[in-house]
Amino acid sequence: GALLVNERIDREELCGALSPCSLSFEIVVENPLELYSGTVEIQDINDNDPVFPSSQERLEISESVTAGARFPLESAQDPDVGVNSLQTYQLSANPNFALDVKTRVDGSKYAELVLEKELDREEQRELNLVLTALDGGSPPRSAHVQIHIDVVDANDNAPVFNQSTYKASVRENTPSGTLVARISAYDLDDGPNGDIVYSFSSHTPAKVRELFALDSATGELRVKGQLDYEETKLYEIYLQAKDKGAVPGVAHCKVLVEVVDVNDNAPEVTVTSVYSPVPEDAAPGTVVALLSVTDLDSHDNGLVNYVNDNAPKPSQDSYDVYVLENNVPGIPILNVSATDPDLGRNAHLSYTLLQGDASFGHLFSINRENGTLYLLTSLDHEDQVEFSMMVQVQDGGIPPLATNVSVSVFVTDLNDNAPMVLYPHPNTTATYADVVAPGTPAGHMVTKVVAVDADAGYNAWISYTLLQATDPSLFSVGLHNGEIFTARQLREDDPPEHTLIILLKDHGEPVLSTSATVSISVAEMVKEVLTDLADVAPANDPRKHVTFYLILAVILVSAAFFITMLSVGIFKCYKWRQSKELYNSSRSTTYRTPGPFHHIDAVRGGFTPPSFYHQVYLTTDSRQSDLLCKKPFTSSPLGSRQGTIRNGEPGLYHQIVGTASRLPTPAE
Length: 668
Description:
Layout: H1 11-15, E1 21-29, E2 34-42, E3 56-62, E4 70-72, E5 86-91, E6 97-103, E7 109-115, E8 126-135, E9 142-152, E10 160-161, E11 165-171, E12 179-182, E13 185-186, E14 196-200, H2 206-211, E15 212-214, E16 220-223, E17 234-243, E18 250-260, E19 268-274, E20 289-294, E21 313-314, E22 318-324, E23 331-335, E24 338-339, E25 350-354, H3 360-363, E26 364-366, E27 372-375, E28 386-394, E29 402-412, E30 420-423, E31 434-436, E32 445-448, E33 450-452, E34 463-469, E35 475-477, E36 483-486, E37 497-505, E38 513-522, H4 526-536, H5 544-586, E39 598-603, E40 614-618, E41 624-629, E42 654-657
Parallel strand pairs: 3-9, 11-18, 22-29, 31-38
Antiparallel strand pairs: 1-2, 4-7, 5-8, 6-7, 8-9, 10-13, 12-16, 14-17, 15-16, 17-18, 19-20, 21-24, 23-27, 25-28, 26-27, 28-29, 30-33, 32-36, 34-37, 35-36, 37-38, 39-40, 40-41, 41-42
């Protein structure tokens, strides 16, 4: 049972700055079976000297700096811990500076020069000091660094930070470039003396410089390396702001960066002991193996539970539910069911309605234990037809596993809306009569009843029936379209006014109905219609002006048409009379139509001597004509030429046989 050291132990290599440094182990004792846990603490010895980053540090301090000003110095590093770590600093004797040793949050020490007596460049241009770092060993180990101070002329105003300490938090494993904090300083000087450059203070550890980057112009502190909560939980970063004067003014601030743990380490399972093979006669409860689980994360991220590895499985991925409108509030409409093959609390399921729409909480509710979905209010198909939602089924594991189920609720229609008449408008006291002319034949459409039903499907089908009429034999109504036709031709003895009551019914169960009243006037002229409308229309009817203008438009169009036709007739008559006068002026009054012949025309032929006239006579049935030539005559009044003879000179008498299908025009 002796525990021996197997190889040389280096505490700094195993644990670094962590203290105490311990190694854990477990011992199994058999017969009887017992498990013991043990821990070996590695104690530190003072085997490391403090080390400064460099052997010399140079400072520039203006002579205008007042007493009490502080100047951080580079810190020494000692990998030992406890009393063997760096404990203090010492400064060589001098008349101007004192040393102030401070302690960080993690217990490490750092030193600041404190100006006790103001510098005078004209008296002393430079100073050389020695800073010694000592640890707490016995005897103590030490390290030295030379501090060279240049005294320069004054830059009146040093930069000033808007706060001395900044605090920030950042998650471990944050990507490089992520902004951590933004420091800000101001300088009252102008020009280069007022331009500020940000940088890390001289005593900032090298590890911090590897993990963080500082923008010298903007003061933005960003992640540069890989942060690990398990390695360091808090970083204390010292920054400075310098102006660009000949003797730059310097201001200092501190940034505390808290690293937030992320669950980035999986549990590690260690099999301590395994018994194999297992005897077939092993009693129930016999230990087969010992398992231990560790997690490097902290707080809840490091808590380990044996494993909830099955999400709830619903019986189906989605549900479609059909609910009649006007339902009774509070009725169950669906039961969402799911199973989980885990055991115990890991298999205990709860049901939650995900509120996709804020109004759903007033309409639906689900029983958290059994998944029954309830309808809390009465639904209306005409208001909304479909509701879509998600039900989340979650087990009781840590962390819990959940599955979402889609639920669609469809509202089916009931026949709860009667047909509504749009025309003729049922809510007006005015009576607008449709007009039909006397003698209108059967089949003429007079008007149409227009109606709608807010229901859907078969419940919205409307049928139209003539319920009552002044003369039932005169009009008929279309069963499905509401069009009113004349059933026969209107007679003179038909009443001048007709009132029809139309019954409108839907096809739902039960049937809902309404009625519409239609007024029809039989009028010969528009004037009669206007008179009738003036008698029945109320003075405050907003549509009377529209009707008047429509009728006036019909009258004006009719008058324009009549005037146009009359003008065309007059023009045609004028042209006809003009052609007739031309015809009469070309006739000779010395010729008469002989016997049964009909006189057609007589023209002067331009190819005959002026002493001859030619006259053509056509019979209406023989299609023959005779050419009669007059004897030469002496000039005398045409009215005295009355002797038309057939026995003229033989050489001047000719018979013409021609075909005539029409009477020639005067021009012909």
